[in-house]
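Morning!

This is the sequence you dropped in the shared folder:
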Amino acid sequence: MNRIIPVASGKGGVGKSFITVNLGVSLAGMGKTVILVDLDLGASNLHTLLGIKNNSPGIGSYLNKQADNLESLIIPTAIDRLFFLPGDGLYTTAVQQHYFQKMKIIKELPKLVADYILLDLGAGTNHNIVDYFIPFPQGIIVTIPETTAILNAYSFLKSALARSIYRHFPPRSAERDMIQNFFKQRLEGSGNSLFSLADQLSSIDVKHGQTVRKMIETFYPGVIINMGRSVGDRDLGKNLRIISRKNLGISLQYLGYLEWMPEVSRSITRRSPYCLDHKDQLSSALEGICRRIDKIVPEKSIPLYEGDEDLDTLSWTGSAI
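The structure's back. Tokens below.
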């Protein structure tokens, strides 16, 4: 059975794609079969970090009905056991996805044959990113030790949970109205958490409250702090865990801390994965993260309501903190 791990970030420029590629290289070095999937449609660049030309059909071709399935679009890399599924190389319009196109891709991903499938998502909290994160409750959020980046990472987690809970209930239902009203209010500093929403939903049906509590408890993403420059930067991952636990009720796992290294930019320029050419503190930290990921026992996610016509225009899940 494959493990699907989406990798996201609350903002751009935090090294998300760099980390995705090098986690894939490290996992392949551990003897795992890995597929890297470029789902940053509209800004696909994973091929650059792998040293692969952007001339192969990919997910854009699948969305434009030029390929029958995703499996047929996978290409090998120069690294044993590491494979690549390109993004929108031949179809730059793939960034314009509607809800049912996303569901089509999400249903295809589990059919891919690999130990690990790493999804490189875009940055931010728009629907085309969050919808690829929430079906897989043990994704990774990448951030850097800056206040805005930490707050954006928290906002991403909040938006992902809000949309996940909302999507569990059918359109135009009383439950969705209640969820919308809950997230229109400021959660931080109110003394409430998402468990308060579960209690409110229990007033409609006790099972609703139980389900939402289960969704919160099984949402177990990990965080990686990248580009650290001081000892104090290490604590930011712990702080994000505390805030997420207090306000959202989730158990965020601190997967690792990566120090800033000047050689990283040079490896990107050379179009060669960092872990292939370096054996140092950074590559060791990335390998340590892979070992922690490999020890995690995946939780089974709770099914989401699929027949949605209003999710592409839903705008309240990105509420400010």
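Headline: The chain has one domain: 3-302.

More detail when I'm at my desk.
O.
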